[in-house]
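ingest -> validate -> predict -> emit
validate: passed (alphabet ok, no gaps, 204 aa)
predict: started
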Amino acid sequence: MRTLLVGCALISGALVVLAHSPSVQVIAQEKSSVPPRAATQTPAKTAPQSSKVDPQKEARIRELMDVTGAKNLGQQLIEAGMEQFRSSVQDSQPNNPRAKQFVDAFVTGFQKHFDVNTLNDRIIPIYDKYLTTDDLKGLLEYYHSPLGQRMLKTLPELTRESQATGFALGQKAAQETMEELKTDFPEFTGSKDDDKHPGGEPNN
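emit:
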């Protein structure tokens, strides 16, 4: 039951964090305990080129992703997610020696199959779809300005506090929902365990 509650709360917190991009990558990096992929590691496959985007516009998109830190967002969110996944699995099965082995194997396998370069190349056409060349020019001017630089430095704290608020609200909502569903879904809410004595025998 605890794992499900944590999962629901994390989803709620993640929605709040994503709403405050581009600073989210700073928080993800600070919280992540999973080491970055080795530079010598062979990616799952070569990332496709965003050939349909005008080269000059693509250069500005890449510059915007660089100045805001968005180019590292995918990898950092994955690392932060893996940390939360590790904690959830090991906390839910603290006496299972294979829990850590499973998480380590999963993280290793996931990093092998997840190519952040492919993600970035696929994001570029999305920027191209919603932002004009003038938009990109204005955004770059803003983020290179003193105010834009200050905003980038301030957003991590805003994001951190927003994430904590979202997590707390999500956890409360998950607990209340699980309580409401105990009768209809006892096998998922843990109510079956609540009806047993410590020795495992059902209550009379």
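The chain is about 70% helix and 0% strand.
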